[in-house]
Structure prediction request, 248 residues.
Amino acid sequence: MRFDLLTLFPEIFAGFLGQSLLKKAIDRGLIRVHVHDMRDWSRDKHQKVDDRPYGGGPGMVLRVEPVVECAEDVQLQGAERGHVVLLSPQGRRLTQAIVEELACHRRLILLCGRYEGFDQRVVELLRPDEVSVGDYVLNGGEVAAMVVIDAVMRLVPGVLGDENSHRDDSFSSGGRLLEFAQYTRPREYRGLHVPDILLSGDHEEIARWRGEQSYCKTRERRSDLLPGASAGDLDREETDNTKRPADG
Ligand code: 6GU
Prediction:
């Protein structure tokens, strides 16, 4: 699978691409990631890619030409044009179902915005799939693009070793429950013991206990995930949240 990242801050991705599971997948040729600096498509001698919004208002808007021309050139590199994703808080909110959908593409072009967003004509010309990673505001799409790559790459065949691949993840379209609690050695730490059941060797009982744990944790923390929950279950909780950021 190939990912193309279009950004104004290519350095942000260096650590992410050079570590861990993603680096291994790249080294093994399962995944390719190309990072493109949209400034290289600026016609301006100062490589300016943003400008003040028509109609006034705070902040700067990404200009249409460098973004569209960068995306079009990048699409022509490689065998297929790819599915264009624009990371934006206005997009549909990312879920595991959307991650699974994105993983069906052989190539994803991820557009990372900054400032107050893109000129609307970027959307009209590229017709991207607009995706948000949650209901909060980030300074730019780069962190969101890393979220998308991280979640999608796990679904690319061969990326997870056999050891993990058979594991039922909490949010895969099959399972809809949170994970049960896990323990490893030592058996006791500061008076806290590993539950006896896990040391019993009775795999049937262990599976039952884990299922119960998952169900109870989900009911307590995320009842919106349980069958029969309506969208309102979550909204009510969210609008109930009266906390405000601390001063300073
Ligand atoms: Cl994709 N971008 C930005 N700037 N903020 C976000 C987001 C994306 N998703 C949630 N918040």
Notes: The chain has two domains: 2-153, 176-243.
